[in-house]
Write a structure and sequence with these properties.
This protein has one domain: monomeric porin ompg (Porin, Beta Barrel). It is built from one helix and 13 strands.
């Protein structure tokens, strides 16, 4: 694997500062709203509703209801965490790949995603950081890549609740900012956008989907390309505490010189310790030569 340059890291930290400034500005506004004694209008938990809808439902989970997380599957939830709620989602992932000429073992941790609801019930800010420890063995020799990855900044908007066959819908804007270790950072801002959608059915099953586009860099040439991804996930509750999901997702490089389309299948379980704490495990396999051979991991979600 080619090492990446950590050039232009200063703009990344500048963007992080702007993101934190927005958070500081929004937090006092929230406090004023909470202390306001004037009558307030009914809370809209999504930005809009479908034209055939007759009320604002959906949106974030109530504080006396089980949390709704974005992990452990690839598909992000279409809902936000709710105004004034901080939710921490973190975990560990191991990835193994052997293409016949070299083998790669990768460890990612703590994959710490902070989600914080500001301004409205339907809006949240997001920050994620993680570390990479990757060993490549080729021709009897090995090399190791260790360090921090670029910081992820983003915002999610809950657009509309489910109305019949029309899905609960959200949109997410994100960017990777050049802030990681010199041998791991991509060295430039990589923006992206995701459309999120889900349906809940009367039989206890749910279907979620995600369509995503991100700017990415070819690991060999360093040239930019657009990485599209598509994912579908089905999930259900086995009882009051245990949940199960099965998922397919793919990564589709457009304009890349060396990257190829990758397909994956994965499955996992969640365990709800209490309404504000959830544990998870997952495992998956790659389909075809371009994808990694397999991966597995575990994690947790804590709502504050």
């Amino acid at each position: 694997m080619e090492k990446r340059s950590g050039k232009n890291a200063r703009p990344g930290w500048l963007l992080l500062g702007v993101w934190l400034l927005c958070l500081l500005i929004c937090t006092p506004v929230m406090a004023v709203n909470f202390l306001d004694d004037e009558p307030v209008e009914p809370v809209h938990r999504t930005l809009m509703q479908w034209s055939q809808g007759n009320g604002f439902g959906g949106g974030p989970a109530d504080r006396d209801s089980p949390l709704i997380g974005d992990r452990p599957d690839f598909v992000e939830s279409a809902v936000t965490v709710g105004l004034g709620v901080l939710q921490l989602e973190m975990g560990y992932t191991f990835i193994y790949d052997n293409d016949g000429s070299q083998s790669v073992r990768s460890h990612g941790y703590p994959e710490a995603l902070f989600r914080y609801g500001v301004w409205k019930e339907w809006f949240e800010l997001r920050l994620m950081f993680s570390f990479l420890d990757e060993e490549t063995v080729s021709g009897g020799t090995s090399s190791r890549l260790q360090g921090s990855e670029d910081i992820y900044l983003g915002a999610k908007i809950a657009i509309a609740p489910q109305e019949g066959f029309l899905p609960e819908t959200g949109i997410m804007f994100n960017m990777m900012v050049p802030s990681g270790s010199a041998n791991i950072s991509d060295g430039e801002v990589l923006p992206g956008v995701s459309l999120l959608y889900s349906w809940e059915f009367d039989n206890g099953w749910a279907l979620g989907g995600q369509t995503q586009g991100n700017r990415a860099l070819d690991p060999i040439s360093g040239n930019a390309y657009t990485e599209m991804s598509q994912a579908l996930s089905i999930e259900t509750s086995l009882n009051d505490r245990v949940g199960y999901y099965f998922e397919w997702f793919c990564l589709i490089p457009s304009g890349a010189e060396t990257m190829k389309t990758e397909h994956y299948l994965d499955s996992g379980f969640t365990f709800l310790v209490h309404n504000d704490l959830q544990l998870d495990i997952r495992a998956g396999i790659g389909l075809g030569d371009a994808a990694a051979d397999y991966f597995f991991g575990s994690g947790l979600i804590r709502r504050f």
